[in-house]
Known about the structure:
With 540 residues, the protein is an alpha+beta fold. The protein has helices at residues 2-23, 30-37, 39-48, 53-76, 89-93, 96-104, 107-118, 136-141, 150-153, 169-182, 185-190, 192-212, 218-235, 241-244, 250-262, 268-272, 280-303, 310-314, 327-358, 360-376, 385-397, 436-439, 486-503, 514-517; strands at 121-125, 128-131, 215-217, 407-408, 416-419, 423-426, 431-433, 504-508, 522-524, 526-528, 533-538. Strand 5 (416-419) and strand 6 form a beta hairpin. GO terms for molecular function: heme binding; iron ion binding; monooxygenase activity; oxidoreductase activity, acting on paired donors, with incorporation or reduction of molecular oxygen.
Amino acid sequence: MTNSLALGSISLGLVNHLYWKKYERDSTTVSIVVAALLPQPAILAFVVKDGKIISILTSYTIFLLTMAISVLLYRMSPFHPLADVPGPFFARVTKLWSFYIATTGNLQRVMKEWHDQYGPIVRTGPNEVSFIGSDAVSGVYGLNGLPRGKFYTIRRESDRPPNLLFLTGQDHFRRRQRWNRAFSAESLNNYDEIVRGQAAELLDVFDQAAKDGTVINIAQKFTYYTFDIMGEMSFGKKFEVIKTNDAAGYLKFIIDFTSKVNSLAWLPWVWDMKILGFLPFVINAKKRMFDFARDCASSRIDEGGSTKDIWYHLMDEAGKEKEQPSLMEVIEDGILAIIAGTDSTSAALSAVVYYVVRQPTAYKALQKEIDDDFSRNPEVRGELPYLSACISEALRLLPPTPSGAPREVPYGSGGKIISGKQVTFLPEGTQVVIPLYSLHRNPDNFPNPEEYIPDRWLSTDKSSGLKHKSEAFIPFSYGQASCVGRGFAQKEMLAILSSLFYRYDIRFAEGFDVEGWEGTIKDFFTTTQGPLQVVLTARN
Length: 540
Ligand code: HEM
């Protein structure tokens, strides 16, 4: 009878593995699986043995061990549909490994090491494949590409409407219409005053620092700038973070929260287990986030907007839609605007300053272009192609979403073929990643990929021999769900960088670890950076 219990538990484990592997769907949650599995070994212990506690425990142990071994062997076996895709051993076996790396903020660098070792297509998880060939971009993000999957949808909460980022398909398409109106060419012009006002406040801080000769962490100041802009644009609220040095600690708590919580999206089943809801720091952060959102919304409702801001468009105050959006939906999207628009743009600004200050030839060329432009017209900026090239080159080397925006092969689709130099079949449920940090540094896409060369974006003598594959440059992602704030981010960057390089000479502070700074950049889907210490000197 003991043998029959052991045999029964082993068979049950194998049958369950086969069943869930075949019938796993989007709707398969951890609670459904646990509810289905939990009674089985106990029932078996009653049916084939005496139902005593020792028999039940034996049955559970053998059942769970069998399932675990069966899953692991299958993932390593030549029968797995991704068996032919090369990749590190541990990544094939469990996602826990790369999840751990993601929690350290170094995933983008480790992914690059993997691609350097295994080539342009790497199996980075049991059911995850990463591509860095330019030919994969349209297959993943293009018209017949892949939708967002659990990496995003798992973050929806049952008691709150999802924001734009967590939507897929038609729901995403409909919500995106409002966002598109908020960032249309006409809307962007309406935001000029906000950008000018916040840029002037930041320049006051820079003036003071230049006068006092103090060292400033310019990365932090840029975060204040982009946060104040997004706050004013989203909720018509002046947070005065630049002026107060973030005395209220808004940025600290938002960055703390997103950096801790976002990594978990790489392990959706843990998120699904709702463990997060019990962790004290998450409970506190969520409460603060909710209070913050409620304050922002009530101030916008009480005071109204001075301009057609993001709220105006998301709330559909112009009445363009059949149904007015719900207040909660707009609050969620307003918070998304602040989170998505703050550290992405500030990370890009820091990257430009970092590389330009490091490189005297680029610095000289940039300052000359800006000086000429100011001497033509001190008030209105003209075309600044070299500055745009410096921004593109910084976004190439240090994209603010360095590990990329994953997509998933939908269940029920029959799988997806990504073709290029190599044809790869991806089964349903596979997560697909294009890590921008590696894509942008792939020598097949960009010649001399590790060097900061703004000229590669211009048609000059220096750029000959530097022709790159333009489809491989996607810092704002690509396709229907790509960054809606792209045009606005460019505007913010041009506004502050042109004045910065015009008004000051910038050098790294004494003792600042120039080489080491890149290593301080951490990727938690949103990016954090270590202090970028510089000294500003006013120019005449
Ligand atoms: C240099 C600055 C920025 C960079 C590099 C950047 C990059 C990105 C990337 C890579 C995505 C992921 C898209 C995907 O899943 O395919 C994204 C999405 C998004 N970004 Fe940005 N972003 C920047 C600035 C901004 C700004 C200023 C805003 C203003 C609100 C913004 C709002 C959004 C929103 C709302 C989404 C979600 C779009 C959707 O789901 O349709 N971003 N961004």
